[in-house]
What we know:
Blueprint: H1 6-38, H2 41-85
GO molecular function: antiporter activity; xenobiotic transmembrane transporter activity
Pfam family, one: MatE
Keywords: Cell membrane, Membrane, Transmembrane, Transmembrane helix
Amino acid sequence: xxxxxxxxxxxxxxxxxxxxxxxxxxxxxxxxxxxxxxxxxxxxxxxxxxxxxxxxxxxxxxxxxxxxxxxxxxxxxxxxxxxxxxx
Length: 87
């Protein structure tokens, strides 16, 4: 990662995230169409009330997952550095 150019590396991580967000947004739009058409305004109201909670749970899950992933990476790096010093 340290020897690669930043542009292709950035695109490598950005493009899958962008595609995932587009798929998620498309899912929400299609879900709203079906719920609005077959259940009606009560169903749409329920989705609008529940969706912020889903967003909060997603944000907390990502926060915990990314934080734990960072700590694991740092600890693995420390262990590898200690192993290298012993040789």
